[in-house]
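Write out this protein's structure.
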Amino acid sequence: MDAPTAKFDEEEIRKGIATLLAPGKLYELRVPKYRGEEGNTVAGFFDDPVALVKWLKRLSGHASGIYLSINPVGPEHVAVRNVCAQKVRRTAKDFQVASRDWLLIDIDPVRAEGHVHDCATEQEKLAARAVARSVVRALKEAGWYNGVLMDSGNGYQARYRIGLPNDAESRRLVGECLRALGERFDTAAAQVDRTVINASRIAKFPGTLNAKGKDTEERPHRLARIVYAYEGIVAKEQLEALAATAKPVERSKTNGTATGTATDDELGRTLALWKRLCPDFDYGKGGKGYFVRCVGTMEPGWPDGSEHNSGFQGLDNSTMVWVENGMMSLSCLHTPCCEPPKKTLGDMAAYSTGTSSRPSGWWR
């Protein structure tokens, strides 16, 4: 019988830190379902590589995956550093990210029915490798530097330094680039993940164990590793050239809804901002609603000749937020502009306080 897979590779972890993290910057370490328990998330923020190595070694192998934020978090948002806590409820939000340092191109295989939550077979992993090769080859031919290629254990990640601000334009640009690559290189067996566009995105870290499902001979647990790493940066003009090859997307005015909840002092602080800055309305039983600017309307190119009309009080381009019994629920009638649909209180607070790129004076 083969020896069990190692839980971590310290040399590979140190290589990942040197390659993917900027010295002195703050990054979030997050481990969902620690020891397999639903809702048991371990997380912490690190700017000390020594402490980070210690925690990566300690946590790897005790969850399906070990993740780090691909972009740095603003230090003003974090009080406690270089230690992890268990069963955390608050993790990094998009508005807390200091800058967009990386474009992540995540390529995973389409796993057989019944094995979506298991590791890939060797054949499935080879399918992801083929798509990754096509992607990096095409980008090199377009004049991009070679970037960083990582074997995530199930598939492959290509990362390219981009050095952009964390704003709506960067989000749009990243999304259009991923969509363009997916449209061109997706196969029936492996695809480019088009959802990894958020600034606070986390991704598997080199030297840690990808341990989805049971460790079997057909679907073994594997360590994530860096295949190669080159220095360089992709110019914004190169990103725009790639984004321009994506097919036009039809936008609609009112598609679906999105909801989210939160409690405790974070809700109170956010409510105080909404009460001060946003128009409100009563909706019965003592409940109060607030009109908050829809993030989609802040993005360049939106709304393609149409408007997001909430249908209430003539306030266009708004997201409605209801508050009742200590819970928050937001409903946005825009599906295309609000992907991913679930919003967080941190996101909504950012829109209210002007830390996102909303037009000034909208609430006045």
